What does this fold into?
Amino acid sequence: MNALLAAHLTLRDRLRREWYVTKVDFLAQDVPSGFRKELRRDLRADLGAAAADVGMPQAVRDLGPASALVHQFKQAEGRKLPHLWTGVLAFAIVLSAGAGMMLATLNGLIEAVTQLRGSRTVTVQTTWLWTTATVTQGDHRMAAEVTGSGITLAVILVVTLLAARAWRYRPAWLQRRHARRATSAPIPGG
It folds into this structure.
C-alpha cells in the first residue's frame, strides 16, 4: 500500500518529504540511531499517506516545524546522546577554513617573494595560529613549506569534540554496567 502511495507522489512532493525527513533526522541526533531509522521510515510512510488525503505541502505543515517534532522525540527518549554528524561537519568546516587561510597566506607570501627578488635568493616567512609558512625563491626554483604545531591539531580536535558533544558518549560496556547497577539498586521506601 505504501509503495502504491509513494508511486503517486510527484518529484516535488518527494523532495519536500525527503527534505523534511532529513531535517528531522539531523536534528534528532539525541535520539538513538536505531530509533531514528524507524522514525525516518514511519515519517516517510505517514507523510505519504497524509499527502494522498491533503497533499504534501499540507501534510508537512500539519506536522509542524521539524524542530518541534524532534523536541517531542527527545523528551520521550530521556537521555542525551553525542551529535556525531555535527562533529563531522565542524571538523570539515574548521579544516577547510584552515586550509583556505593557509593557501591565502601562501599566495600572499609568493607575491611578496616575487616582488622582493632581484638576483638573489629571497625567503619570506610568517606565523599565525601556531602555524609557520615559509616561501623561498632562488634562481630557478621556488619552495613553500607549511609547518603546523601540536596546538593547531589540538584546537581542531577540541572544536570537533565540543561540537559533537563527545562528553555524552558512553561505550556499550559502560552502558551495560550502568544498567546492571540501576536494576540491582534497592527501591527507595520499598
In short: Residues 1-5 have pLDDT under 50 and may be disordered. The longest strand covers residues 122-128.
